[in-house]
């Protein structure tokens, strides 16, 4: 799922592709990191479940994302190996600072895009589904401009 575990918290990121066509995220001015949309979704889900329930286990992710236990187990193993999560002996999952930085960025995008699409008249269910797809592909610049526009429109 992820490569290059040395990640610092970042403010903006730009999606692009490497020479082989793999999706990557370039973190503005800090580092280069290869990350797939699925990893971003797992990290975002962990953050959301943690905020809702206080504690998160793999089974909570299985239920929330409607994925198989082996798929989630493998993803958690890769996220742990790359320094994005930690897991205690009871199986409770915590985001590391690096994982929280990525999850927070994706979650902010999801919330803002869902709200914006809903204001435009899109049903809440469709807005959330569309936001989930859009949040991974917007450049940091485009997201920032959308955010500024929404804030101006709300004033």
Structural overview:
- The chain is an alpha+beta fold and 155 residues long.
- 56% of the residues lie in helices and 14% in strands.
- The chain contains six helices and six strands, in the order ββββαααββααα.
- It has helices at 37-53, 58-65, 69-81, 97-119, 124-134, 140-154, and strands spanning 2-3, 13-17, 23-27, 32-35, 85-87, 93-95.
- The chain has a four-stranded antiparallel β-sheet.
- Helix 1 packs across helix 2, helix 2 (58-65) packs across helix 3 and helix 4 (97-119) packs across helix 5.
- The longest helix has 23 residues, at 97-119.
- The radius of gyration is 16 Å and the shape is globular.
Largest sheet, strands/sense/barrel: 4 strands, antiparallel
Work out the strand percent. 5-15%
Helical segment count: 6
Strand order of the largest sheet: 1-4-3-2
The helix/strand class is alpha+beta
Give the topology string: H per helix, E per strand: EEEEHHHEEHHH
The overall average pLDDT, rounded, is 83
Question: Ends: how far apart?
Answer: 40 Å
Low-pLDDT ranges: 1-11, 27-34
Number of strands: 6
- The helix content is 55-70%
Gyration radius from CA atoms, angstroms: 16 Å
Overall 3D shape: globular
């Amino acid at each position: 799922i992820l490569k290059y575990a040395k990640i610092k918290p970042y403010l903006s990121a730009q999606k692009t592709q490497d020479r082989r066509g793999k999706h990557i995220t370039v973190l503005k001015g800090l580092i280069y990191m290869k990350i797939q949309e699925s990893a971003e979704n797992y990290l975002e889900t962990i953050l959301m479940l943690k905020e809702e329930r206080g504690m998160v286990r793999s089974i909570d992710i299985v239920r929330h994302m409607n994925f198989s236990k082996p798929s989630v187990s493998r993803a958690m193993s890769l996220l742990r190996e790359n320094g994005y999560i930690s897991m205690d002996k009871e199986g409770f999952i915590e985001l590391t600072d690096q994982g929280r930085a990525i999850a927070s960025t994706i979650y902010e995008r999801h919330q803002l895009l869902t709200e914006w699409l809903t204001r435009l008249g899109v049903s809440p269910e469709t807005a959330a589904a569309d936001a989930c797809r859009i949040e991974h592909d917007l450049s940091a610049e485009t997201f920032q401009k959308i955010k500024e526009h929404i804030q101006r429109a709300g004033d």
